[in-house]
Amino acid sequence: MTSEAAYTDSEFLIRYSALLYSAFRLSVILWRDEVRPVAGVFWMFVYICLGVVPLAQLSTGASTILAVQVDDATLQATTAITLLGCISFDIAYHIRLAAKGGTTAPVATLRSMDTLRIFAGIAVLGGLVYVAQVGGISVFFASRQEAGQALDQVSPDSGQAARAIISAFGSVACLVGLIFYIHAVRLLRSSLNLLDTALMVALVGLNVIVNNPISNSRYWTLAVLFGLIMPLIGARKSFFNLAIIGGVVAAIFLFPLSDITRRAAGTGALLQTDSVWRMISTKDYDQFSMLANTLGFTRDEGFTWGNQFLGALLFWVPRVIWPTKPLDSGVEVGLWMNSANVNLSSPLWAEAWINFGVAGVILSFAVLGLLSRRLDSGFGAGALSAGSVGYLGVSIFSGYMFILLRGSLLQSMGRLMILALAIAFLSGTVKRKPGDS
Q1: Helices and strands in the chain: count of H runs, count of E runs
Q2: pTM to 2 decimal places
Q3: Are 261 and 271 in contact (CB under 8 A)?
Q4: Is 8 left (phi over 0), alpha (psi -120 to 50) or beta?
Q5: Distance between CA 320 and CA 340 in Å, rounded?
Q6: Nearby residues of 316 by Cβ (< 8 Å), 6 or more positions away
Q7: In this predicted model, what pLDDT tens digit does every residue of 217-270 receive, in sequence order?
């Protein structure tokens, strides 16, 4: 949808404030010596999806069709909610909790190579079953639309929860297994036997099939790339900066072009290449628009008072057992919009708002800020500790932050559960003595 660009100075400044704030925080992360992958992904997401894109939409007069559901006042409130979440995250992230004197944090280590071999074998088997159930290798190199339709045919009577777990295990387990194997080879310098070689080859092949950028969303592609790249970067700050800058450039200039693989062959929309700013304004960066529409939804329907959070937390419960199980938040808002397509995003700001309003945004992002600081601190220690695998979990989670922030929360929970279980299965903890490096 395009229109003549007309806006006031105050409207421009309101949109620009989110861009300026996120650009400042991102520049500080790049400038400081520490490698902070989780915070880096958070501010990169805000800068692109809630900073650059909304400002481009205002400046060009172009937007996705989703933006027509709300008025200008609601759009301004959307920026305010964005900033509220960012400030809550920022304050919580920089709170320094007092550590108990003389204690040191435990170090996560790989349980054993045998544990990794068992997990890799299960991951390979699960990946092969996933590929077979979806319809074969060719489905994963068709388009996102065709791959999604094929997945919908997997156990159609079992409901979305079962399909989410099947697809999550098929795509996540082989990724985690490969990342841990790369670690074992490079940092632990483990000697490979024939079984290890076969498992690594199988994991690489499966990742090329199930996690390729053709049949997966751009956010999952970013998550996979960060999960693979961050363990290799470790504590090397210059490479980390390059990854962040490269991610921003790719998201703005390259990822909009990936819409060519979104639809089945011959049905995709023509790409608009006359202006990169018009292109990102009209393509699939709908987070700002969907946050605005969520504000409109709660204005008409009221808050859900935790019901959407509960539905996401208990995503694994089949609807036949829980008939009143909440729908995906993006679906709920899409139905309110009378949208023909209800497969819409629901960014974390929208998830927090639809549940508890302002209080939900403040609390949710404060908790995320505290967790992010803890993980980033662990990454710094883990990257420098021989034998530690703690930084692998942080690397994988930092990549998955793209999915959590984009939403919806319900759709992201399946892969998150598999990630958590896989890392817990592979990792053990040992106490580090004071003075150990």
Answers
A1: 17, 2
A2: 0.87
A3: no
A4: beta
A5: 25
A6: 161, 165, 414, 417
A7: 778 888 888 888 888 888 889 999 999 998 888 887 777 665 554 555 444 444
